[in-house]
Write a structure and sequence with these properties.
By secondary structure, the protein is α/β, with parallel strands linked by helices. The chain contains nine helices and eight strands. The protein is globular.
């Protein structure tokens, strides 16, 4: 049976930002996975880590740190990235004593917006992670898919502006479960942003049409260099939320700079396809490949 401890990795005013640490018993120094949840940086929390995925990581010998971060639009993108940086630094500095991890063997893994943050970790944290795994993440937050009305979400009934903004704008929060009225309201705000092409404006606080250069430090696809960590990109080719092209463009940039990477295309799969769990042989086999990739990068 694994051990779990909940830690506050940073506190800002009256807002405590937490991480759940999972590990098997014993004092051996284990490699670590910093796991980041999805939810468009607007909703979601650390508890959405799938139990069967967690079990696969633990059985393979990893300690897993599932971290929250402050959510937009109450804070803006720069603050979210600061939380990523602080979570990673906390794992590196405090992990060896608090939960027996090897700070030289840390991978960052994320899903959707968490995949975006994992890709951000490829150039905005130090020391660089040993490896990255991005599940249906994205590298360009200022592109048309986010900055223009989205065809898929525009098929849904229009979310009224007043309703959208009633759900946000209160106290700073660090997470919402994927259920309940708080989630529903924030999800409706997200749909409104996608229908209006306003996600970059609301989450970043800047307009990509008026200030395109502002987004440069926040777009992983614009920051790939030779020292970018080895990266696995996993994406369904029928994703209607985050276009498959986002992972394809990241793979192309990595190839251009000679960065070790692997792009796994999940045929006929949509967004969050891994939610079906390990009972799906395709998902189980995918995690075999994820674990093999991490071992290949000596994150083991």
């Amino acid at each position: 049976m694994f051990l779990k401890q909940t830690c506050v990795y940073k506190a800002v005013n009256d807002c405590q930002v937490r991480a759940d640490v999972y590990r098997m018993p014993g004092d051996v120094a284990r490699p670590a996975i910093l796991w980041l949840h999805g939810g468009a940086l607007i909703f979601g929390d650390r508890e959405t880590l799938s139990p069967d995925q967690l079990q696969r990581y633990l059985e393979a010998g990893y300690a897993v740190i599932a971290a929250d971060y402050r959510l937009a639009p109450e804070v803006k993108l720069g603050t979210v990235v600061e939380d990523l940086q602080d979570a990673y630094e906390w794992v590196c500095m405090n992990g060896p004593d608090l939960f027996h991890i090897d700070p030289e063997r840390i991978a960052v893994v994320g899903q959707s917006a968490g995949g975006y943050l994992a890709l951000m970790a490829g150039f905005c944290v130090n020391p660089r992670p040993r490896a990255l795994v991005s599940f249906y993440g994205y590298g360009d937050i200022a592109a048309a898919w986010y900055a223009r009305p989205d065809p898929f979400y525009s098929q849904e009934p229009a979310v009224p502006r007043d309703e959208a903004y009633q759900a946000v704008g209160g106290a700073v929060i660090t997470g919402t479960p994927f259920e309940g009225s708080l989630f529903e309201g924030r999800y409706r705000f997200y749909v409104y942003c996608r229908q209006q092409g306003l996600w970059p404006n609301e989450v970043a606080g800047h307009d990509p049409d008026e200030e395109p250069g502002w987004f440069d430090p926040f777009c992983p696809v614009r920051n790939v260099a030779r020292d970018y960590p080895p990266t696995m990109l996993i994406h369904g080719d029928q994703d209607t939320d985050v276009p498959f092209e986002q992972s394809l463009l990241m793979a192309q940039e990595m190839a251009r700079h000679g960065v070790e990477h692997e792009l796994i295309t999940m045929s006929n799969r949509g967004h969050a396809f891994d939610g079906e769990g390990m009972k799906d042989p395709t998902i189980s086999n995918l995690f075999d490949r994820v674990l093999a990739f991490l071992e290949q990068q000596d994150v083991r």
